User: What shape does this take?
Amino acid sequence: MSKEIDIHLGRRLRRRRRLLGLTQQQLAGACGVRFQQIQKYECAANRMSAARLWQLSEVLEVPVSYFYEGLSAEQRQQIEAGGEAGGTDMMARKETRDLIQAYYQLGERPRRRLLDLAKSLNGDSEI
Assistant: This one.
């Protein structure tokens, strides 16, 4: 989901920049970054921080909300909930980080066995 939002924000950025007749170089200069950074924002290779969105909204003379226009109701709910489907980002949880750290402290054979066990508990041997 977060990648979809990055793509949406990048498209809105490109659209407004082009409507104003600005090049990526000109926009980058106004924001104090290199044009490659604007390219990365527009193609969603890099995420825009809240501060950068604010700065871009000022340079492009639009409210910050401009970047979010056109999102579906479901996408807006997920943003407001703070992350991925269900309102949680699995990789941001401490439990997930602890599990991954413990997993990689095991040797290769115990890791394989643990992975096989997890797959069998899930009922899916093809994960």
Remarks:
- The helical segments are 2-19, 24-31, 35-42, 50-59, 73-81, 94-105, 108-122.
- The mean pLDDT is 84.
- The chain has two domains: 2-87, 93-122.
